[in-house]
């Protein structure tokens, strides 16, 4: 059992007004809102730290069944009620603490926002206090935890935000937000860039929805919807009991982004090659260009990122490839409920003596492999599949059929060239010939089941000292 989180983003349309986007004033409102919420959060962080005994207070509660008194830490909701009581003016309670009068400092702040900043502040204050206590107990002199900051992305609870989505007419899709104009709190409509994928993801019943956050960036604004799903997955130990266990192994490489093989009862039942469709070559061309521009312009300026657009393009290409590949891997896993997904522990593909551009490109290829690994793991887990990382030693050097050490080679024309980069694998023992990446992928299963080269070796018996 575990849980997994995913985020679905909804972009607010802050483009040009003529194209139906929000005007610049509305953009300024969002900034004002974030600013005043930061200030309110700072107020509550300071308030809680001024009363440090409260967030760590132990309270006794009586359980319903046993009538027994138990001691526990004060809950966040209880703290919230207490903090509101001390700081907020109400009819029943007209005089909050004079130094901590929130209602006076932040008049008319909508209560969903007030609650969201108090909850944020509770989290920040508690983690700071516990870090501080740990540090004091550790008797170290250095590394005293600094006081918590107050900035955070605004959380939009019910009552401060609503979606008005009309799939039929995209001009009618809005997010209604309660925002601060600098003087008052008002409701405003923000046009959104909605897609049908967004709606499908947001309303998926398998995922529990949480309150969205408003993420403001230099050139964009978006609502991030977090969704949580409880996952029922067997442990690997339980899965291994199953004599007909299906394992899905993935070998990550450069030209073949992934070679996926499925094994059951000792046989490979399915093989899938995910090629890079020229990504490596394409990226290499861009690296050459970047390299040349860097060389022409001399030393890089510190703090200034050169070739911004080109890098962004390359990053996007990499991310798209990683996303697509991990999707494919997760889809294969979904076909075999209860299977185990196998990866090799990532090792770097050596960059060797290649040119600078080639080395730059290789570095990125390594990053893409890391991304594929991480994303597949997440996606597969959301569908109940656990991932195991196996010992990668020798997966590309040993024969997946008989287990002997083989060699890599390639054909150039009709000439057979033996080389470490060879695309093909040949076993001198059983004369098995195969695609090298496929061979490696099959060996990932063998490593998991500890067969052949990956057999658990018994420790040599301890040498006894001979006497006489
Ligand atoms: Zn062999």
Would you report the number of β strands?
18
**Shape field:** globular
User: Percentage of helical residues?
Assistant: 25-40%
Bound small molecules, by name, code or SMILES, are: zinc ion
Q: What ranges have pLDDT less than 50 throughout 5 or more consecutive residues?
A: none
Q: Mean of residue pLDDT?
A: 85
Structural class: alpha+beta
Distance between the termini: 60 Å
Strand content: 15-25%
The number of helical elements comes to 10
* CA gyration radius, whole angstroms: 29 Å
Would you kindly provide a brief summary of this structure?
With 468 residues, the protein is of the alpha+beta class. The protein contains ten helices and 18 strands.
Give your account of this protein's structure.
The strands form four sheets. Strands 1, 4, 5, 6, 7, 8 and 9 form a seven-stranded antiparallel beta sheet that branches. Strand 17 (424-426) and strand 18 form a beta hairpin. The chain is α+β, with helices and mostly antiparallel strands and 468 residues long. Helix 8 runs parallel beside helix 9. The longest helix has 28 residues, at 111-138. The mean pLDDT is 85. The chain has ten helices and 18 strands. Helices cover 36% and strands 23% of the residues.
Give me the secondary-structure topology.
Layout: E1 2-12, H1 24-50, E2 58-62, E3 69-73, H2 76-87, H3 102-105, H4 111-138, E4 161-164, E5 174-180, E6 185-193, H5 196-202, E7 208-209, E8 213-216, E9 221-231, H6 236-241, E10 246-252, E11 256-264, E12 267-275, H7 279-296, H8 308-334, E13 340-344, H9 356-382, E14 386-390, E15 407-412, E16 415-418, E17 424-426, E18 433-435, H10 436-448
Parallel strand pairs: 10-13, 13-14
Antiparallel strand pairs: 1-6, 1-9, 2-3, 4-5, 5-6, 7-9, 8-9, 10-11, 11-12, 15-16, 15-17, 17-18
The structure holds zinc ion.
Zinc ion is lined by residues 399, 401-402, 404, 427, 429-430, 432.
